Amino acid sequence: TCVGLQNLLQGLSFSVKCYSKHNHLQTVCLYSKIKHQKCHILDCSGGTCTHRTVPPGSIMPWRFFSCKEGTKIPSKRKQNTSITTSQHLYKDLLKSEQENWNDISAGYKAMTKRIKEKLEELHNKYMFNSGLPRIRFGENVYFEENGCIFLSKADDVDEGNVDILFNTEDLGFSDAFIQRIRISADERYMAISLKSDNSEEATCVIMKLGNFPAVEKVIPSVFSFEWATNDVLYYTSQKNLKCQNVFMTTFTNQKHTELVYTEPDARFFVDIYCTKDRRFLTINSNSKTTSEVWLVDCRHPFKLPALVQARTKGLIYHIEHRNDELYILTTYGEPAEYKLMKAPVASSGMENWQLVYALEKKTKLVDLEMFSDHCIMFLKNAGHLYLNVISFVSHSVQSIKLPAWACEFELESHPEHTTSTCYFQLTSPVHPPKRFAYSFKENNLIEQAVQEVPIITNCHTTRLLAKSKDETSVPITVFHNMNSKELHRKPLLVHVYGAYGIDLNMSFKEEKLMLIEEGWILAYCHVRGGGELGLSWHKDGCQQNKLKGLHDLKACITLLHELGFSQPKYTALAAASAGGVLAGALCNTDPELIRAMVLQVSCCRPFMDCDIKLYFLFHSPKQEEWGNPLADEKCMKYIKSYCPYQNIRTQCYPSVFITAYENDQRIPLAGVLGYVQKLRKAALDHASKTSKKGSWIPNIILDIQASGSHCDSSWEDSLNE
Q1: 132-262 is a CATH 2.130.10.120 domain
Q2: What is the three-state SS of 595-606?
Q3: Catalytic residues
Q4: The whole model's pTM is what?
Q5: The domain 458-720: what is its CATH number?
């Protein structure tokens, strides 16, 4: 079964958890390009998901620089000449930026060496002892390491008495890493997804287990898969970052494969989930604002899927099952936040949904785990983490506030819904994962002590509220060294995202702890557009409300400085992906607030006129976040009002460091090159006009990496970056 509903709650921000060869627990996007030597799975018994990536969509067609508005191309011959010219311009700019980066980076070798040694020291100190993920079936334990899958008896797993079931190299998949494992209930079959670093799509390999494990079938271009019965597998096919078809394949005497479901709307992404009790497979078709679920009865896997509730615009719902009742996590009713409801399987329409539990206002539901007699909700409220334990026996709810330093949950696999204990980890950017357990029998929280991992004691966590332009209170989480004096003289690194209803990533990173130890202040601004305060927080910062996120960010940085956390000349701003829109916009409107900005694969320039139209034409799912400039001129004008590229002007800018990847399908490199060129020209024009002695000339640096991913990378790759 899957681990919770987090993959659904985060919309389409799909990711898996994986381990590097140093057993470093990380979150990595399903589409990331990671060599198998550097990354191993955690998604053994379920696909968890985090808040780190933009939603999947169509591949943006390969384009170079846009022609000016109104330019006409009268003949095919001239069009080909124009394309050739653009290609040469693109290659020249690419070569120029690479040479510039090589020249600049050479001056940082000593600093790079020192930082790398420090990060490796912290990694070995805090993360080396993370355990490998395991799947337990009765007395059997399955686990993966170095591209191999092993089987052992539970009592022998630590003694080295293991059988090898699968080896990527022996079967010709040497360039792939293992992404997900699903084992049939009778343990006769094992389905494995493999992914290489040169493809966005995974391959599913089905092994027949026994005394001599053998490959039974290979299915290309697969995203998610689940066993309906011992010998019936359902899976989704992936093409161009979209999943719209569901297939069923059988491994009985009469083997066959057939199409079960097709999603006609390109805005919707389809995946498969198995309820905790293995009673149903759910076919989930989700956009960012609407969802629809079909049920496959695992007792009758050849019957047509049954619709739970027809899609209704603005209605999101997800399904679990217990005792012949569907438990429905949904936005149905007022307010439009998540509620837990239930309905009989036989009459599942929303007219029959009954409320079980409703969240408090401005509370974020991070995840939900269903057990035989209990349900655990993992919640965020005003930056603090909580557990709400719902008892279906006593019909009571117990709320447990978790340690103040904790900022993120990391759930562990619970393949048996009858278990009496729920295990999870708590972490923060500067606190390594710490294991906890909730016992249903004892009704209490148990901290799992690990002597090998030192406890962080010198870091102080502060939670603030900044008043935005419209008087809305915006949360900020601040970390600093308890021993630091004169905080107004310390360097400050501010983080922002604010899009797609996704929370800022606040899981542990060695580089964040290193900065704290060296006296830095870290601040995380939970602006509107993100999901930290629930669905309404996202709604209040998307489409025609995007500027609210920018106002929030300005208010947060201003408050930090007013309270004595650093000052503008020591402040840097960091953002990734869609977070670059707000960061880049702040650079244009209030450049005096920061001294430097770091952008990682950020979309600062999809937005010249014809860029905008083509971008949204081929990325229709993004219209739910940014609006539809294809059909609405007001929307086009609004996007232009904050677009980081459109609003560059001759003024004093902070220094900017941008990381980009040559083959990033979500943010084409040509757009990043155009943004850097225009920003650099504006900064230099301003410097030439002022020409005062000692005047500020910013560094505008672009690091173009030949290989890499829009999403998180392995420990080794992130260390190099």
Answers
A1: yes
A2: CEEEEECCCCCC
A3: 577, 664, 710
A4: 0.80
A5: 3.40.50.1820
